[in-house]
Amino acid sequence: MLPLLPFGPAEQPWHSSQYPSLPLVHVQNASLEIAWSRVVLEGRTIAGHVLMPFLTRDEEGFDVNQPYDWALAEQMVAAGTARLPAVSKAR
Predict the structure, then answer these.
(1) Which residue range is the domain that position 70 belongs to?
(2) Does residue 84 lie within any of the structural domains?
(3) pTM of the entire structure?
(4) Nearest 10 degrees: Cα torsion 1, 29, 51, 53
(5) How far apart are CA 35 and CA 66, in angstroms?
(6) Is 39 helix (H, G, I), strand (E, B) or coil?
(7) 44 φψ region: left (φ > 0), alpha (ψ -120 to 50), beta (else)
(8) For labeling, which of 17, 52, 65, 75 is most exposed (least CB within 10 Å)?
(9) Across residues 67-78, what is the average pLDDT?
């Protein structure tokens, strides 16, 4: 296993540092992915080579991958700690 940030200062490795002293890090989630279809068709990848972040907050970035995630999402909606967006329905 290797440290997440191996380029940290030699005198104090990141994994042995207090949380407030660590640099801000963003982690990719799968809550939203947007790409031109040509990126997939020509480059054979959904990410491409030019990336732009879309920062999410709180439940907005919640990612459902397992049955546990689905159950947790239902629990958050039922408790009112998260809410589903309103979706208009064409008549």
Answers:
(1) 14-79
(2) no
(3) 0.54
(4) -120
(5) 24
(6) helix
(7) left
(8) 52
(9) 94
* Three-state DSSP class for residue 40: helix
The single residue listed with the structure tokens 């008549």 is 91
Question: Which pLDDT band, with edges at 50, 70 and 90, does 47 fall under?
Answer: confident
Q: Contact, 63 vs 29, CB < 8 A? A: yes
Question: Is 46 contained in some domain?
Answer: yes
- Distant-in-sequence, close-in-space partners of 65: CB < 8 Å, separation ≥ 6: 30
Buried b (16+ CB within 10 A) or exposed e, 12-33: eebeeeeeeeeeeeeeeeeeee
Tell me if 60 is assigned to some domain: yes
C-alpha 91/C-alpha 83 separation (Å) is 24
pLDDT computed for residue 76 by the predictor = 92
CA 59 to CA 80: how far, in whole Å? 11
In a domain, 25, yes or no: yes
Say if residues 66 and 77 touch (Cβ distance below 8 Å): no
